[in-house]
Amino acid sequence: MEIKFTEDALNKIKPKLDDHTVMLLSYADGVGPYSHHGLVALQIEFDFILITDKMDKKDYDGQYDSELGPIYYKSYSKEFLSDNLKIAFQSNFNVLTLSDDSETIEDNLQLQDLREYYSRKVFLVS
């Protein structure tokens, strides 16, 4: 299982990564410290979240491989995902999109860098 990135998406995301960055493909269902609400339970919504390797990711028990490294997700959200995912950057709208071979899954994949904010909070794993 792999997530591929278009060149434009790589150019948008790669500069934000360092050796301690963990990438999450987070189903926005209100479960876990980085999913702030479950109001989208009637629709499918995903976010692309950056955390540090010291931050809690226990809810993200599934893993996709990618050219940028592993991307973790909540395994039960797999029902909305396929094995051939692609993240693209739409420069005309300045948004990331998530799609598979047959459809767009998320047309506004929010890139959220939570490393600095949450590293000062209680989300660190000791």
From TrEMBL:
Read off the Gene3D superfamilies from this record. HesB-like domain
Ranges of residues in domain Core: 1-113
Top-level taxon: Bacteria
InterPro entries, from UniProt?
Answer: ATAP_core_dom, HesB-like_dom_sf
Q: Which SUPFAM superfamilies match?
A: HesB-like domain (SSF89360)
Q: What is this protein called?
A: Iron-sulfur cluster biosynthesis family protein
